[in-house]
Design brief:
Elements (H helix, E strand, L loop, with lengths): L3 H10 L7 E5 L23 E2 L3 E4 L6 E8 L13 E5 L11 E4 L3 E4 L2 E4 L9 E2 L20 H9 L4 E5 L4 E6 L3 E2 L10 E2 L2 H10 L7 E5 L3 H13 L3 E5 L10 H7 L3 E5 L3 E2 L5 E5 L2 E6 L3 H19 L8 E6 L4 E3 L4 E9 L2 E4 L9 H5 L2 E5 L4 E3 L4 E6 L5
Parallel strand pairs: 4-5, 11-14, 11-15, 12-13, 15-19, 17-22
Antiparallel strand pairs: 1-10, 2-9, 3-5, 3-6, 4-8, 7-8, 16-18, 18-19, 20-26, 21-25, 22-23, 22-24, 24-26
Length: 394
């Protein structure tokens, strides 16, 4: 059986696949990775701009200035100021070429069409010169940059409507089980409402991936093989939930073998998620995840997310980790490694109740996982433990 560390190493060692580029709308490029550097078609700011509400002056010899007009943000630059003249101006408005300082409104006294400045300003004061943020023709964002909200805003402020990014992986989600019913069905005895497809879909949506195929399949070998064959033909990554254990009606492993998928590892010495499978056929990766909902989600965050991060050309792979003090004593005699749902609050971590692999209630309240290596644990309050932070939805 594979250890957690060995499984993560095997995933990390898989040759990185570089996907083609695609051109998409800037507004839809959140968390995408640039495949081509952004070249600025204009300077930012593109004109001499006021940084404050106040008065734009052509500095003269005294403290008194005549107000000859007003310049709002968006107005064309039409004023030609003589020494001793000024205009009322607002933040973001174009500063006349003949003005060489802006005095904030709190530092003047106004008398009808004249102002008195309390102190002569320095040349260039409160003026944003053209190109102080970005020079025309420069490359403000380089290839490989992950586009966050600020980056998207910067690109749009340059007037760029489309960007070249790496194509996201095509991911298929397949859920197995005769006992599963869609929500809204008549819940007969022995059946349960299926939730893993929504769990995986929304977890993928968190990193801006929309699954290409989401389907369920009954526990029959022929049906499982047929659905998997289609998924491998249309995907870069196939995620399967359930059917990977060793029960009489677990057909995923047999179907993968018949399709010629190369097994990289199967079964990890951990809880939850022992019957985890990772394989590859050609350039298509495959994870067969345990069917219990908490196991499915734990394995997704710990193993699938790092692979997807690499495929998406992120520089950081998987969940952020940090050693934090635990808020209480904790003991376990479990010989396998543990991934425990937990809550981090004010710099301390608490392990939650309801850790069973079939229970989502603790996951719904968790913002982290605590990782405890193999062979049990006897941890005292305030000792540091390995914490994996779950993706933030806030």
């Amino acid at each position: 059986m594979t250890t957690v560390e060995e499984a993560l190493r095997l995933i990390q060692e898989e040759q990185k696949v570089v996907f083609d580029s695609e051109s998409i709308a800037t507004s839809k490029a959140l968390n995408r990775v640039l495949s081509k550097s952004i070249q600025a078609p204009l300077a930012l700011p593109s004109f001499k701009q006021s940084a404050m509400d106040g008065y734009a002056l052509h500095i003269g010899t005294g403290l008194n200035y005549e107000v000859v007009g007003e310049q709002k943000a968006g107005d064309a630059n039409t004023f030609e100021l003589e020494p001793g003249e000024c205009i009322r101006i607002f933040t973001g408005a174009a500063v006349p070429d003949s003005a060489n300082a802006v005095v904030i409104q709190e530092k003047i006294n106004r008398f009808e069409n004249k102002i008195e400045v309390k102190k002569l300003p320095q040349v260039g004061q409160n003026i944003r010169a053209e190109g102080t943020q970005i020079k025309k023709g420069s490359f403000p964002l380089e290839k490989g940059q992950v586009l966050n909200p600020a980056g998207l805003g910067l690109i749009q402020s340059l007037g760029i409507k489309k960007v070249e990014v790496y194509r996201n992986p095509r991911v298929s989600v397949i859920v197995t089980g005769n006992e599963l019913l869609p929500p809204g069905s008549n819940l007969s005895e022995g059946k349960i409402f299926e939730s893993n497809s929504l769990i995986l879909k929304t977890a993928l949506n968190q990193i801006q991936i929309e699954p290409k195929i989401i389907t369920s399949v009954p526990d029959r070998l022929e049906d499982t093989q047929k659905v998997l064959k289609k998924a491998f033909a249309n995907s870069d990554l196939v995620l399967i939930s359930g059917g990977i254990s060793v029960g009489d009606y677990d057909f995923v492993g047999k179907a993968l073998q018949k399709l010629g998928v190369n097994e990289i590892f199967y079964k990890v010495r951990q809880r939850p998620g022992k019957p985890l499978y990772f394989g590859k056929k050609g350039n298509v990766f495959c994870f067969a995840l345990p069917g219990n909902p908490a196991s499915t989600l734990s394995c997704f965050y710990v193993y699938v997310l790092p692979l997807l991060s690499r495929l998406m050309n992120f520089s950081n792979y998987g969940l952020r980790r940090e050693m934090l003090p635990i808020a209480h004593d904790f003991q376990s005699s479990e010989p396998r490694a543990l991934f425990l749902k937990a809550s981090v609050n004010q710099g301390k971590v608490s392990i939650l109740d309801h850790q069973n692999s079939s229970m989502l209630i603790s996951f719904a309240k968790a913002n982290a996982l605590v990782y405890l290596p193999e062979n049990g644990a006897n941890i005292k309050a305030h000792e540091k433990v390995d914490v994996l932070f779950l993706p933030d939805l806030n």
